[in-house]
Known about the structure:
The complex is a heterodimer. By secondary structure, chain A is an all-beta fold. Helix content of chain A is 0%, strand content 53%. Chain A has strands spanning 5-7, 10-14, 19-24, 33-38, 45-50, 56-59, 62-67, 72-77, 86-93, 99-101, 105-110. In chain A, the strands form 2 sheets. In chain A, strands 2, 4, 5, 9, 10 and 11 form a 6-stranded mixed β-sheet that branches. In chain A, strand 4 (33-38) and strand 5 (45-50) form a beta hairpin. Chain A is globular. Chain B is built from no helices and 11 strands. In chain B, a hairpin with a 5-residue loop joins strand 4 (31-37) and strand 5. Chain B is globular. The model of chain B has no long low-confidence stretch (mean pLDDT 93). Chain A binds chain B through residues 1, 6, 31-32, 34, 36, 43-46, 49, 51, 89, 91, 93, 96-104, and chain B through 31, 33, 35, 41-45, 48, 50, 56, 58-59, 90, 94, 97-105.
Amino acid sequence: ILNVEQSPQSLHVQEGDSTNFTCSFPSSNFYALHWYRWETAKSPEALFVMTLNGDEKKKGRISATLNTKEGYSYLYIKGSQPEDSATYLCAFPGGYQKVTFGTGTKLQVIP
Amino acid sequence: DGGITQSPKYLFRKEGQNVTLSCEQNLNHDAMYWYRQDPGQGLRLIYYSQIVNDFQKGDIAEGYSVSREKKESFPLTVTSAQKNPTAFYLCAARQGVNEQFFGPGTRLTVL
């Protein structure tokens, strides 16, 4: 079983605060790293697909960075809003199409 | 509209019964997946299939079975051998190295 870890497990921030979470993954045999957002009562939706060391991706107030050599990725949210409240998952696609998810970071933004 | 459908949304099973969860996609994606989510945990991989007539065990395959006779369909059977089947089940599809797309999920409860 591949070890994909996320921290923290949960996070409460005030509206307007900026925050970040970490995903760590095996640094060998790297193919890609995915970030998903999972809102309550909805299906997980992809935020970013990251493939190259040093990749930085941005979507609105959310951005992500990737370090494949040391096996970690950071997700940043600038100026958190209540609608950002969700569970953020990272996923590590391995060989033969197997995809392993981390345990997720549950974010609660307090108005 | 392309997407993934799962049925039923809620399923109740008596102990000792087998039940089958449906997953259908019209995205024309080659790979399909089944995950399980338990409270406080991330998504754990049960089975996945790269192409028709081929499937691989994931990290928690014991007590489950699948088939992939058609590209668009990947049903999951929860057998009586699964000791703790009450959980939320998600189906996903993926093409190549891209992100996964998820269905709405099935919540299974054993009575």
